[in-house]
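Q: Given only this backbone (417 positions), what sequence would you predict?
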């Protein structure tokens, strides 16, 4: 049975949560449904956001392997963000939810505020680390792309310093707000709480959360626009420039999430006595911001793996002969695995040419060809023969050591500077 503490005072209704002790619970407001719960929403959104973030990091590493490129500083920094994102996400979806987060405070166990303080402490440590990591990863990626531009290097170093100082301030300020430090959570101990005169907490949590979101928003905007002039100055076709710019602008998702989180804080929807309920949406947007930031840091580097996945799933058919015989060629076969030609060509059909070309010069597309584009610009082409062509060069097949059936294998190689 839930233990409710009687009180006739309403003075605490608008106070920050860290100024209210567990023993001073207010009466249940009239008409409040204590069966309401946001816990399924918290668990679902948190797990999905975390999973997408982890998946994006894995795909980023796979993309680097596909390109046969070793992991660089930007890759290692984003990998370092994953453990902190995991701690942030599951401290909320696991421990916090089990202690009443997502329910009205009157329907939570007696130690819910103590658990809430522990979750806040974990968030105060992990959230700034995740944000610093994904922003540093983006800056390291910019350095790798534009390291020959002196002006951009200066901007990158300035932003690295500002992001670090912001993260340090966001981590230390709320942790050190109480004297002694352990009063941050010990004041809510349901068994042996600290007496009001034995500790002092000076900082309003809500005001701090509002103000620390503003520098985050500013750095998000700067990170978004920083590479655009350098990309536009590249010697590339306009269409390709627009495509690259659009890829970088996908990072605007993190900007949108930050704005939404700030709007909840400014409108005061996270204040009041019922903190285990009122703070739910802000917590979800904090988790979304941390995980979406990881995804945005990985998006520009996922093209190789996405291209490979698209090619792996694409059905490639080679049509041959008058009877419409088809043979499906997998990417593994195209990339070097050999197989007998009789598996492709029926015995009762004649072909004039089996052509394999390398270097990206594709054969013209017409009704007499079926071709397959390889991963590195190679192409396989089959062309159906005319009886006249087969009759003109009967000896060439034997010179190539291919036997009969009018099959000719040639190799075309183009070298481009």
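A: Predicted residues:
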């Amino acid at each position: 049975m839930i233990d409710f503490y009687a009180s006739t005072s309403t003075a605490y209704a608008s106070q920050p949560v860290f100024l209210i002790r567990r023993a001073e619970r207010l009466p249940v407001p009239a008409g409040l449904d204590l069966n309401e719960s946001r816990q399924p929403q918290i668990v679902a959104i948190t797990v999905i956001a975390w999973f997408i973030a982890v998946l994006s990091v894995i795909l980023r590493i796979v993309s680097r392997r596909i390109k046969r490129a070793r992991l660089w500083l930007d890759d290692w920094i984003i990998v370092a963000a994953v453990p902190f994102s995991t701690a942030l996400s599951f401290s909320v979806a696991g421990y916090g939810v089990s202690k009443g987060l997502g329910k009205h405070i009157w329907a939570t166990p007696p130690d819910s505020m103590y658990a809430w303080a522990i979750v806040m402490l974990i968030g105060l440590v992990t959230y700034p680390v995740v944000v610093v990591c994904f922003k540093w990863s983006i800056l390291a990626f910019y350095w790798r792309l534009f390291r020959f531009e002196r002006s951009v290097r200066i901007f990158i170093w300035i932003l690295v310093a500002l992001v670090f100082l912001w993260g340090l301030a966001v981590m230390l300020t709320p942790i050190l707000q109480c004297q002694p430090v352990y009063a941050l959570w010990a004041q809510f101990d349901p068994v042996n709480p600290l007496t009001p005169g034995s500790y002092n907490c000076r900082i309003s949590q809500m005001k701090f959360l509002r103000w620390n979101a503003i520098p985050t928003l500013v750095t998000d905007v700067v990170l978004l626009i920083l590479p655009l002039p350098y990309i536009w100055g590249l010697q590339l076709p306009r269409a390709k420039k627009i495509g690259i710019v659009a890829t970088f602008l996908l990072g605007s998702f993190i900007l949108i999430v930050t704005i939404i989180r700030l709007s909840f804080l400014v409108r005061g929807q996270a204040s009041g006595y019922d903190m285990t309920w009122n703070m739910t949406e802000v917590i979800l947007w904090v988790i979304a911001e941390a995980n979406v930031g990881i995804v945005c840091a990985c998006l520009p580097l996922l093209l190789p793996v996405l291209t490979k996945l698209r090619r792996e799933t694409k059905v490639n058919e080679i049509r041959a002969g008058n009877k419409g015989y088809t043979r499906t060629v997998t990417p593994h076969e195209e990339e070097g695995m050999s197989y007998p030609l009789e598996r492709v060509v029926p015995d009762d059909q004649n072909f004039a040419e089996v052509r394999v070309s390398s270097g990206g010069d594709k054969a013209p597309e017409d009704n007499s060809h079926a071709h397959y584009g390889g991963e590195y610009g190679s192409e396989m082409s089959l062309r159906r023969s005319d009886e006249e062509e087969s009759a003109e060069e009967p000896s060439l097949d034997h010179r190539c050591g291919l036997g009969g059936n009018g099959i000719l294998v040639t190799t075309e190689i183009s070298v481009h500077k």
